Amino acid sequence: MRDYDGEELGPGEPASSFAAVPDAFQRLWTPYRIAYIKSNSEQEPGADGCPFCVAPTLPDEQALIVHRGVHAYVLLNLYPYNSGHVLVCPYRHVATYDEATPEEVAEIGSLTQVAMRVLTETAQCHGFNIGMNQGRIAGAGVAEHLHQHIVPRWALDSNFFPIIAGTKAVPRLLGEVRAELAEAWPAEA
Questions:
Q1: Is 25 within a domain?
Q2: Could you say which of 67, 71, 85, 147 is catalytic?
Q3: Are 86 and 75 in contact (CB under 8 A)?
Q4: What is the pLDDT of residues 36-69, one digit of tens each?
Q5: Which DSSP string do the residues of 87-117 spell out, in sequence order?
Q6: Are the C-beta atoms of residues 74 and 65 closer than 8 Å to each other?
Q7: Quick check: is 82 in a domain?
Q8: In this structure, is residue 12 part of a structural domain?
Q9: Which domain holds residue 127?
Q10: Which residues face 72 on adjacent strands?
């Protein structure tokens, strides 16, 4: 290996000598995400190793399930972007939205609306990011099982703390948030 000036580097050289050659790109390093990446890459393929197939077989508190519907359910994201980050998943193991039945699509939409109302009531959020990443190339962490993200947002909740300190501030415990949302979930939904 050579340094910036083309000099050969030996085994005792400092790690800083091995840095990449500077280029025009700005990089935002997010090493805290490696735990998520590694945990997902170690999953076994198929429904048996799918966290969204396993979750409904567990008690709600253990699986972080907020509400169970007929065709879909709501649970907290284990790696949240913000407090109250929930996912809406069909029970059936399907990968993409176009594979979902009309009943699954309708319930995913209905549960998304209720989740927004419950989060607005309990967390006093000011807005939401809602979306689905379809396929690994599109950023789906669990590409084999359809799921929709509902991320509550607040004015001034964005900062550079995750980038500078390598830490995401999530001010509430998952179990605490799950209990609050489950308690606030309307019985008729």
A1: no
A2: 147
A3: yes
A4: 556 655 444 445 689 999 999 999 999 999 999 9
A5: EEEESS--SSGGGS-HHHHHHHHHHHHHHHH
A6: yes
A7: yes
A8: no
A9: 50-184
A10: 90
